[in-house]
């Protein structure tokens, strides 16, 4: 009898040019293209086993059964794409410390897209996998690929997918996640995006500016200009957070310590060590730097934050099947 079972691993990513707003809620088409770095330390392992006797999907996260309508909806999208009708038992383990404040939805839906299509004996190319992952969570579109990836905004389901960006550089880039708070976020990314698109008076300027940032950060990557690269990423993150401050009702993801962390990074930079920060839909601050400067920057940060609140990651691989 044929085996309808597969397991996959995908790593999470940190956006350096942010996705913050949808032009199509159903298809998850973004308002602007984005760019990220996939990270080695944080990943999700997922196994999918189809069983024709099941009448609905069963989902287990870190060993506990969960009712998750988003996962069920996503499995319906997978079934539409594979033409394989059965329901499945899905088992996911997150190796993304919830405390890290890194979106586990990126690694989760990238791993599920690969495992669920492979278990249906479909070998889709990475572009198609990226399009399927997109339907689970926007940031998952990029986690199909390793290293730097760009999500092309597209105009429809076919044209909105990520692609890898392969640049030669000797930066040996690292990301330090400064863990500030591990509580669930007050405003989900889905809610936050909807509010800013509908109400921020700056939204149309954001789109223009994010498009310019995307173009310029790719030039900085191609010309190995780390300073320019970091400055664009930092400024892009701050513009995203400015949208939240200008929305109605306004909201923000800053904790007092997030602001302190940003100021400390600016001080370390003034000492001559290039490092730049970014933040997503939560209070934790992520710092990008070169490996050559990592130990000095970590030592500086340890003057202000406990060592076990500083998590270091390097570039990670794309989604892959597990034996
Ligand atoms: O993929 P979502 O729906 O969790 O949204 C992610 C949004 C940000 O992390 C803030 C930005 C991004 O591009 O990943």
TrEMBL record:
Pfam families registered for this protein in UniProt: MDD_C (PF18376), MVD-like_N (PF22700)
One Gene Ontology term, aspect cellular component: cytosol
Mvd1 C-terminal domain sequence ranges: 176-308
ATP-binding found in the keyword field: yes
One GO molecular-function entry: ATP binding
Gene Ontology BP, a term: isopentenyl diphosphate biosynthetic process, mevalonate pathway
Top-level taxon of the source organism: Bacteria
Database matches in Gene3D superfamilies: 3.30.230.10, GHMP kinase, C-terminal domain
Diphosphomevalonate decarboxylase-like N-terminal domain ranges (all copies): 10-162
Alphabetical UniProt keywords: ATP-binding, Lipid biosynthesis, Lipid metabolism, Lyase, Nucleotide-binding
Keyword Nucleotide-binding: yes
Protein name per UniProt: diphosphomevalonate decarboxylase
Organism name: Ligilactobacillus salitolerans
């Amino acid at each position: 009898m044929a085996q309808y079972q597969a397991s996959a691993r995908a790593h999470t990513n940190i956006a350096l040019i942010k996705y913050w707003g949808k032009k199509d809620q159903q298809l998850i088409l973004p308002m602007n293209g984005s760019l990220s770095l996939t990270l080695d330390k944080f990943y999700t392992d997922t196994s999918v086993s189809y069983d024709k006797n099941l009448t609905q999907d069963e989902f287990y996260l870190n060993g506990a059964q969960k009712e998750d309508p988003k996962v069920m909806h996503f499995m319906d999208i997978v079934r539409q794409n594979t033409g394989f009708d059965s329901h499945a038992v899905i088992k996911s383990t997150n190796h993304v410390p919830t405390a890290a404040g890194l979106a586990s939805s990126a690694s989760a839906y990238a791993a599920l897209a690969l495992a669920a299509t492979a278990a249906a004996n479909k070998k889709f190319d990475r572009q198609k996998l990226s399009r399927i992952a997109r339907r689970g969570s926007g940031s998952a579109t990029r986690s199909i690929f390793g290293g730097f990836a760009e999500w092309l905004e597209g105009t429809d389901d076919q044209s909105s997918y990520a692609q890898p960006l392969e640049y030669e550089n000797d930066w040996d880039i690292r990301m330090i996640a400064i863990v500030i708070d591990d509580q669930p976020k007050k405003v989900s990314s889905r809610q936050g995006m909807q509010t800013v698109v509908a109400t921020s008076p700056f939204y149309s300027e954001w789109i223009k500016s994010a498009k310019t940032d995307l173009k310029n950060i790719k030039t900085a990557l191609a010309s190995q200009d780390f300073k320019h690269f970091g400055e664009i990423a930092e400024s892009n993150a701050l513009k995203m957070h400015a949208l939240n401050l200008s929305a109605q009702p306004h909201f923000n993801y800053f904790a007092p310590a997030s602001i302190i962390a940003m100021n400390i990074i600016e001080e370390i930079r003034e000492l001559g060590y290039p490092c730049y920060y970014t933040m997503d839909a939560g209070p934790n601050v992520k710092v990008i730097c070169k490996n050559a400067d990592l130990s000095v920057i970590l030592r500086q940060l340890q003057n202000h934050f406990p060592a076990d609140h500083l998590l270091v990651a390097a570039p990670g691989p794309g989604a892959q099947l597990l034996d």
